[in-house]
Design brief:
- By secondary structure, this protein is of the alpha/beta class.
- It contains 15 helices and 11 strands.
- Helix 9 crosses helix 10.
- The N terminus is likely disordered.
- Bound molecules: beta-D-galactopyranuronic acid (GTR).
- The site of beta-D-galactopyranuronic acid has 7 residues, from helix 11.
Length: 455
């Protein structure tokens, strides 16, 4: 072969290599998977779930090629290289993109007429383990509400203000513990749940969610716990945004396509709870972690992204619209979630049904908004609907932003194995054995992680 002929073959060959390497580098969804070591979805479960619904993808190999938006180059031009520029320009721009295209825009800050009323204060609650408080926050100060009740347990013996976990609950404050003095919400609940009659909960539901709220263990670990029934803030059904805080704070007239959905309303409620917690002398307002499971994990992330008074953020099995990368289209997708729950996100988000590639953001950028604060993301082995792998990848791809602050995010070669938490940096992650749930195992890891950053 003479030289010219050689060049003739070499050029296309080189082009092919370059194209292939670009494609591989774009294929972020698989490039960090260490197939030999890391967690992988159980093949039997993948088959069962796929056979139940062919239109949902559970196969890692069928994930489309995609390119993730780079949080550092979001403002076209050059890449951000320092924390100050990130804080001044990229961070606010990304936050605005999430407001505009995903969750919707909530009213800013604490309403002027909002009131706090500590209507219950009991020392030696829970057999002497705790001081219990119940606080009513009336959002607009009107007698008829809307209002939410915060249930707070603090370790009884602590001499200084305590760090605390704050999280919304699914079925009412009285469901988190058997304590007979926890008041019962009068807000709407879906029928079909234990103890719910005519969309109202009853005494029968007391303590039914206790496994998700290990109050005694939390107190013994030196943390306080505050929780609120999420339906106090906005009832979780598609009512045209007339009830809850939407009804109270929305302007009259047609709704904008970027108006706040329910996740945004619940997150706003968490910030209003924070307004109270910061005034309570028994609580260390600089060490408050926000935690949430499932749709309420989406909510804790969104609350943490917007309100940096949350010193640590925990997402438990939050899935689509939470920690999972939308572009992977694995398990629940943007189109599925917007169809099943049309009220959770803003109307603009629906434009990306089956067009995830056109979204100006993906969920790793939401995780990046927590930087430099610690954030913990957890998945469950059987919870493929929430895409454990996609949740891990969001954590992983938030790394470069933590680096800007000189902080270690999550330094791993691939997804960690089952039941092997990684929590030595500012981004924690584990995938736990078992189903979509919030368990003591999860809590123990969150508390260990908080110990590292709070103590
Ligand atoms: C599911 C929904 C998930 C998750 C879950 C929950 O039906 O598809 O996105 O949020 O509900 O909140 O329990």
């Amino acid at each position: 072969m003479n030289i010219r002929k050689f060049e003739l073959y070499l050029l296309p060959f080189l082009l092919l290599i370059v194209t292939l390497s670009i494609l591989i580098s774009c294929h972020d969804g698989r490039s960090v998977v260490d197939k030999k070591q890391g967690w992988q979805a159980d093949e039997g479960l993948v088959d069962t779930l796929s056979n139940k619904n062919f239109s949902v993808n559970y196969f890692e190999d069928s994930i489309p090629l995609f390119e993730l938006p780079d949080p550092l180059t979001v403002l076209k031009g050059s890449s951000v290289t320092d924390a100050e520029t990130w804080n001044k320009t990229s961070r606010p721009a990304i936050l605005q993109l999430f407001r505009e295209f995903v969750y919707g825009i909530a009213p800013i800050g604490k309403p002027e007429s909002m009131t706090f009323d500590v209507y219950d204060l009991k020392k030696d609650a829970l057999a002497g383990l705790s001081t219990r408080k119940q606080v009513r926050i009336n959002f607009s100060g009107k007698l008829e509400g809307p209002f939410m009740d915060i249930l707070i347990y603090l370790p009884d013996n602590s001499e200084s203000p305590v760090p605390l976990f704050l999280g919304l609950n699914f079925q009412g404050n009285h469901t988190i513990n058997n304590d007979p003095e926890i008041s019962i919400t009068k807000s709407w609940l879906p029928n079909g749940r234990v103890g719910v009659v005519d969309n109202r909960t009853t005494e029968k539901a007391r303590g039914i969610a206790a496994s998700r709220w290990p109050v005694e263990e939390i107190l013994k670990h030196g943390y306080g716990l505050a929780t609120i029934y999420y339906g106090d803030i906005d009832p979780d059904f598609d009512d045209g945004f007339l009830n809850g805080v939407h009804g109270a704070f929305d302007q009259k007239g047609p709704r904008e396509s970027n108006a706040w959905g329910s996740v945004s309303a619940w997150a706003w409620g968490l910030s209003r709870a924070m307004d109270y917690l910061q005034t309570d002398k028994d609580i260390d307002g600089t060490h408050i972690a926000v935690i949430g499971h499932s749709r309420l994990g989406k909510t804790s992330l969104w609350a943490g992204a917007q309100d940096d008074r949350f010193a640590l953020v925990v997402s438990n099995c939050s899935g689509c619209g939470g920690a999972a990368l939308s572009r992977r289209k694995y398990g629940e997708t943007v189109g599925i979630i917007n169809t099943s729950f049309p009220h959770w996100f803003c109307r603009n988000f629906k434009k990306y049904n089956n067009k995830e590639d056109e979204l100006p953001v993906d969920q790793h950028m939401l995780i990046a908004l927590m930087a430099p604060r610690p954030v913990y993301i957890a998945s469950a082995d059987r919870d493929l609907w929430a895409d454990p792998h996609g949740e891990f990848l969001s954590a992983y791809y938030a790394n470069p932003v933590y680096k800007l602050f000189g902080k270690k995010g999550i330094e791993v070669k691939g997804m960690p194995p089952l039941d092997t938490p990684v929590q030595d940096g500012y981004i924690g992650y584990h995938v736990r054995s078992g189903k979509h749930d919030l368990t003591l195992y999860d809590w123990n890891n969150y508390m260990d992680f908080a110990d590292k950053h709070f103590r």
